[in-house]
Amino acid sequence: ILPILLVLVLVIVLPFLFIGNDPDVDGYPVGNVNSDTAAVSGEGWFFGQCFQPSDTIILEKASIAAKNPNVQGGTWSIRVYSVTGTYGTSCVPNLLLATSATFTGSAIGSSYTLIEAAFSGNERIDLTVSTSYAVALRHDTCSPIPSCNSNDPTVGVDTSSPTHAGNAFTCSPLCVAFAGSDIAFVVSGTISAILAEITYTPATDVTV
To answer: Is 201 in contact with 65 (CB distance < 8 Å)?
Structure first.
């Protein structure tokens, strides 16, 4: 009885110790970026990457590497979508699932850095381990036109030796997948005890 009770206590209590850690569940390093060709050109356009979380989380933050010293006006957001197509080759966004807080072009600097945005309220959705999703940097509003369209940022892409299991894509608004490219990005969130499923079978095992 005591060993079983101890295991139950650990299963129930330990997940709470990790709440708030915001672990990264997928990403691709900025150091691998080698291309400036991925311009997010025009209002409503977006560029991103298909990914699969390494753990089940509540979405908290996402980052995409971008640069442009000449960005003028307008607003931007990072969005997460369900996907269609084959993961790693023809994966593209399908349905919008979550939208981050918006930010202005001034947040995008002159060298490739991860532009981070937070998700709040109902946008803090559950992301399921090993399920395919898409994350993208979206140009929400452009002001003044046409100057902001002519100074759109570029997203950091690895076209030389991409190693991420997913694939890059662009939507303008028609979506096109790039099987031989990966975007530099990070997705992170909270591992919650509420998401843990506890199964108990007497005298056999306790699993999460």
So the answer is: no
Q: Which of 67, 49, 72 is nearest to 153 (CA)?
A: 67
Task: Supply the DSSP symbol for 131.
Answer: -
- Its pTM stands at 0.80
- Is residue 95 classed as helix, strand or coil in its secondary structure? strand
Query: What gap in Å lies between CA 162 and CA 189, rounded to an integer?
Result: 25
Q: CA 148, 150, 33 angle in degrees (round to 5)?
A: 100
Distance CA 184, CA 175 (A): 19
Alpha helix locations (H) across the chain? Answer: 2-17
What angle (nearest 5°) sits at the alpha carbon of residue 102, between those of residues 194 and 127? 25
Q: What is the pLDDT along the chain (208 residues), one digit of tens a residue?
A: 655 554 444 444 444 444 445 678 899 999 999 876 666 667 788 899 999 999 999 999 999 999 886 766 678 899 999 999 999 999 999 999 999 999 987 788 888 999 999 999 999 999 999 999 999 999 888 766 665 656 678 889 999 999 999 999 999 879 999 999 999 999 999 986 544 443 333 443 433 3
